[in-house]
Design a protein that fits this description.
globular, single chain
């Protein structure tokens, strides 16, 4: 069993998790306003969680005889998450909206991984994808609640 699509999805996640960590870090740096004292340290926790996922995903890819992307250029060339130069022009709610959008994208990549790893019979990787998608959906719910919105989680 070659697990071609599973390994491709794992590597996609290597690029996307790396990029999203940078986007969260930018939010952390460019945040101002009355919510700063609460949200600034929360972004540290978000980055830690993304980096923990990145380590598990990368190590699973290596376990399957894959080769994770490992350079900034590879991350930038393969991610589906946009970047933009930091600026002070965005409000904290606007930054959180960006994070919600990016976390929704990441949930979609995990969903794709659930489907392809299931089709390729890799239950162990599928379990990783399911757990991390669940964690990402919780982050979406939390940010949406902070923004005064419903989670609007699409299970597929």
């Amino acid at each position: 069993m070659h697990l071609t699509q599973t390994k491709e999805t794992l590597n996609q996640l290597v690029a996307d998790l790396s990029q999203l960590s940078v986007v969260v870090h930018q939010t952390h740096w460019y945040m101002r306003g009355p919510e700063f004292l609460h949200l600034h340290p929360l972004m540290d926790k978000f980055m830690d969680e993304l980096n923990d996922q990145l380590d598990v995903v990368s190590e699973r890819l290596i376990t399957l005889d894959g080769a994770p992307y490992s350079t900034l250029r590879e991350f930038a060339d393969h991610t589906g998450i946009e970047d933009a130069p930091g600026s002070w022009d965005q409000s904290t709610p606007e930054r959180l909206e960006t994070l919600v959008r990016d976390y929704r994208y990441l949930a979609g990549v995990y969903q794709h991984g659930i489907e392809v790893s299931g089709a390729e019979g890799d239950d162990s990787t599928q379990d990783i994808f399911i757990g991390f998608k669940t964690a990402i959906e919780k982050k979406i719910w939390m940010m949406q609640a902070h923004l005064g919105k419903a989670p609007e989680i699409d299970p597929e």
